[in-house]
Sequence to fold (155 residues):
Amino acid sequence: MKMKIAAVGMIALALAGCAADSGAKQNVGTVAGAIGGAALGSQFGRGTGQVAAIAAGTLLGAFLGGEVGKSLDSADRAAHDRAQSRAYAAPVGERITWNNPQSGNSGYVVPTREGTSASGAYCREFQNTIVVGGRQEQAYGTACRQPDGSWKVVQ
Fold:
């Protein structure tokens, strides 16, 4: 498992380096997409088949994340961040929407499950959907409340 995590990290860093000339928002999208794709790929196969699925998921996620990331401006990210913050306290299943009339981009965040981590931290799983240029992309993740009250994405 440590080998798989290290491989995903190296691929994500390599992809971020390839996108260095593309701009910060595309880099963030590329890395986030790579991590999400790797997480999805890890759900398939065993042994070397699983490693291949992780690699394929990482590459596909990086490409899609980079495409979405280069299309999101700072106002889009701010609107998404406000929706994400509201979703930390929203009831599970409630859709928190956001949009940016200037760019036409929009999306929503849905808390899908809550519970506690092995260390006892309160955590929530989320589905994020972003619509850029009429194209919809989804990502899933988990965030846990930190001792200082802030939230940290852990997956």
